[in-house]
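re: that chain from earlier
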Amino acid sequence: MPASVGTRILDEVETLAQEPDPARHVKKLKGGGRNTFYSLRVGRYRVILNIYDDMLLIIVVELTLSRAKAWRFLLR
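^ sequence. v structure.
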């Protein structure tokens, strides 16, 4: 991935971390078993992440260009 895209993704995730309710700004994904995963679109990329409210911790799980790859990740 180009460095400019990586910088943009990092900026978006940092902005999301400053929100009082970050889950309102991302799409909740179906599946994932006991974990709740969210998708944040940044240009052509999807950032798959978990949000832990009690600690305001955002964990980026995967970056992908493909929706199909994102779903395969969630279903493993």
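The radius of gyration is 12 Å.
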